[in-house]
Design brief:
globular; 10 helices; 24% helix; five-stranded parallel sheet; alpha/beta
């Protein structure tokens, strides 16, 4: 039975918001829980959109965080297909798109991120795509199947994780794929030059063509349909469809209009929150892709756009809203699947932060662990087709030990032994 003595409102119908609602109930909160999402679908997880669901290997229902009936059973009030358009901090209320005003005692912003748009001529043509929402994935599945059937060409702008995963999916459908990337290797900002070549080779072996050191300048078409793309070095690539995979921007407009403190855009932007995921307003919290948290372990403000952050950040924020002591210091983590290569990455090692890179295993066979170190300490680790090591890699990062480099690089040395 719901006791209306308190109302907690969650804005954002993604994984972070859904897991926050679940945690409020599992932690014994008996007040009203209202979850507002601007999509009509029930809250879902995003990784399948570029992996199993996009490939047709997973059913649509498998992406949802909870069964549809769970929300009523848990007394979570859902407002789907309904954006929140304003926050009144003084009145502690939010206004929905239909004019409804909802009071809150505590508010969680889990508004996520949105794909960055190509700012070039031709983006209004049919056949220009993004991938962020389930509706995008529904459409893209049909597009990739048609391209594969008709020997069509897909041009992907951006060789980040999403771009590469979609390139892999498109090749599995049989489409021709060209990836245009400004940097000299894929994933350059994450993996640096040391391991970007691994993914160049992987995709080239599967027939993907790369055009590095260039950006799209125009998408050209006829009768509203895509025909080709032009790049800033004068090249032209045939295309029937174009995918923009040039990153995502945190959805901060609601928070900004409400006067909440934001993080520096130069460092990823987002809503600035402390280690308990509380914003500059003591009654408002933020979690997931939109939150730029003061990270106790890494001693920096960090905004993480990956699944694990939503999975764990939503519950952490819910506990903080309930007055529990929260110090959100999880090691950043993400995973990717491309063809027969699976990987997990833990930590944070942006360009310029590390002074040494160590490989453990066989890089050529794509069975290895890579470590990024600074002053002998492990900042990040990526295991490629090597499994059941993530916990140990994260312990190496968390403890700050300085492992012997020769032993770190030796696959015959148990990884756990390097913790002491």
């Amino acid at each position: 039975m719901v006791d209306a003595h308190q109302t907690f409102v969650i804005v954002g119908g993604g994984l972070a918001g859904a897991k926050a609602a679940e945690t409020l109930r599992s932690e014994g909160f008996t007040g009203r829980v209202i979850l507002v999402g601007d999509e009509r679908d029930h809250p879902y997880e995003r990784p399948p959109l570029s992996k199993g669901y996009l490939l047709g290997k997973e059913e649509r229902d498998s992406v949802f965080v909870h069964e549809p009936g769970w929300y009523a059973q848990a007394d979570v009030e859902l407002h789907l297909g309904q954006p929140v358009v304003a926050i009144d901090r003084e009145a502690r209320s939010v206004r929905l798109g239909d004019g409804t005003v909802v009071h809150y005692d505590k508010l969680l912003l889990a508004t996520g991120a949105e794909p960055r748009r190509l700012d070039i001529p031709g983006t209004g043509l049919a056949g220009v795509h993004h991938l962020r929402r389930l509706a995008h994935a529904d459409r893209l599945r049909q597009v990739l199947a048609a391209l594969g059937r008709d020997n069509g060409h897909l041009v992907i702008a951006g060789a980040g994780w999403i771009g590469l995963e979609i390139a892999a999916a498109a090749r599995e459908y049989g489409a021709e794929v060209t990836v245009v990337e400004r940097e000299p290797t894929p994933l350059h900002g994450v993996l640096g030059p040391e391991f970007g070549q691994v993914f160049t080779d992987l995709h080239a072996e599967h027939g993907v063509r790369f055009h590095f050191g260039a950006s799209l300048t125009e998408i050209v078409g006829q009768d509203g349909m895509v025909l080709a793309v032009h790049t800033d070095d004068g090249e032209e690539h045939p295309a029937h469809d174009v995918l923009a995979a040039i990153g995502a921007a945190p959805r901060t407009a609601l928070a900004e209009a409400a006067g909440l403190a934001l993080a520096d855009p130069a460092h990823g932007g987002g809503i600035a929150v402390d280690a308990s995921l509380r914003t500059s307003d003591p009654d408002i919290y933020a979690a997931g892709d939109v939150a730029a948290a003061a990270h106790p372990l890494l001693s920096t403000r960090l905004r993480v756009e990956h699944w694990a952050n939503a999975l764990n950040g939503g519950p952490a924020a819910a506990r903080a809203m309930l007055g529990r002591h929260v110090e959100y210091d999880r090691v950043p983590y993400f995973f990717s699947d491309q063809y027969d290569v699976g990987l997990e990455y833990s930590g944070w090692a942006p360009p310029g932060s590390y002074d040494q890179v160590v490989a453990r295993g066989d890089v050529g066979k794509r069975e290895f662990i890579a470590f990024w170190l600074s002053d002998g300490r492990v900042l990040a680790g990526m295991n490629v087709n090597v499994w059941d090591v993530t916990e140990t890699v994260q312990q190496l990062i968390r403890t700050g030990v300085r492992p012997d480099i020769e032993r770190l690089a030796d696959p015959s040395v148990p990884l756990e032994s390097l913790l002491t």
